[in-house]
Amino acid sequence: MIEFGNFYAQIAKKSLASWLEVLPKQLKVWRDEQAHGLLPNWEKVLAKLPDQSGAKIDLTNGVTIEAKEGLAEGQIRKVENLLRSYHPWRKGPYRIFDFDIDTEWRSDWKWDRLAQHISPLKYRQVLDVGCGNGYHMWRMLGADAEFVVGIDPSSLFLAQFEAIRQLAGNPQNIHLLPLGIEQLPPLQAFDTVFSMGVLYHRRSPIEHIFQLKDQLVHGGELILETLVVEGNKDTVLTPQGRYAKMNNVWFLPSVDLLALWLEKCGLEQVRCVDVTVTSVQEQRRTQWMTNESLEQFLDPNDPSRTIEGLPAPKRAVMIARKPSANDDD
């Protein structure tokens, strides 16, 4: 069974200690009332994975985990088959032993686009909001972050993360919690907060930005990545129905309007460091994610439009700073 006792013990010694006033109760409610019905099956898969304590992991140019000496070929194939039972794998890729988890998203491309622009993560406590199965969390750890916490309400993503962490030898400075940002108290304890691919799913983007700001220490850095459209400070797309077959897309602002939103929420040094049209090479079907993907979400006769006739997905990366305590806020 997935437990969070080690996480509780660790944050009790950190600036996150106040979180313990609400977190254990929240996770009990999740386990009792909100966890996916297949979670017990996914936990049984975890129990079948080999003990990889002391495993060698490489997080410099991706996420690579080497098999411990003596792990037989048959055991490696068993691990591969066990991990395939966690379909669909959306964020990655991962190199596990001698096989690749070829995920729907080339999440490494997004990381490469933003990593050169963010403040160094060394010695920092980092929060990844809507982290999926935690791929970018591993890259943050590889960038020398001191402590990485991800939140995502998906039970499947939690199981995928725990599988990777177990195969990596259960490092204790990286954790995923099955929560949404709205469940977090204003901790004001993280040096860097990431929100990537979340804002357009929120009914109130302004409230989401304030929630992110409330997790940052004074002087902390926010990295916000979201879908955008062309236009000026008055431009925002509100899909009437679905967007790229997604029924939970609310607002796609222009980059200028997104910057204005961040400034209106009291953030400073706001800048856009990347705008990239999502390609069918970056998001696609694979053997590890056989459901529909971007190619099926676009107009087959005009890939610059979605199947609904709206502008095709384009993503911007924004960086902003929470003012220092002695600054006007």
From TrEMBL:
Superkingdom of origin: Bacteria
Gene Ontology terms: biological process: methylation; tRNA wobble uridine modification
Enzyme class: transferase
Key words of the record: Methyltransferase, Transferase, tRNA processing
CDD domains to which the protein is assigned, alphabetical: AdoMet_MTases
Binding site for carboxy-S-adenosyl-L-methionine: 91, 105, 110, 130, 152-154, 181-182, 196, 200, 315
Gene3D superfamilies assigned to the protein according to its UniProt record, in alphabetical order: Vaccinia Virus protein VP39
GO terms for MF: methyltransferase activity; transferase activity, transferring alkyl or aryl (other than methyl) groups
EC id: 2.5.1.-
One Pfam entry name: Methyltransf_9
Catalysed reactions listed for this entry: carboxy-S-adenosyl-L-methionine + 5-hydroxyuridine(34) in tRNA = 5-carboxymethoxyuridine(34) in tRNA + S-adenosyl-L-homocysteine + H(+)
Role this protein plays: Catalyzes carboxymethyl transfer from carboxy-S-adenosyl-L-methionine (Cx-SAM) to 5-hydroxyuridine (ho5U) to form 5-carboxymethoxyuridine (cmo5U) at position 34 in tRNAs.
Quaternary structure, from the entry: Homotetramer.
Similarity field: Belongs to the class I-like SAM-binding methyltransferase superfamily. CmoB family.
Cited HAMAP family: tRNA_carboxymethyltr_CmoB
NCBIfam families, per the entry: PRK15068.1, tRNA 5-methoxyuridine(34)/uridine 5-oxyacetic acid(34) synthase CmoB
Protein name per UniProt: tRNA U34 carboxymethyltransferase
Species: Celerinatantimonas diazotrophica
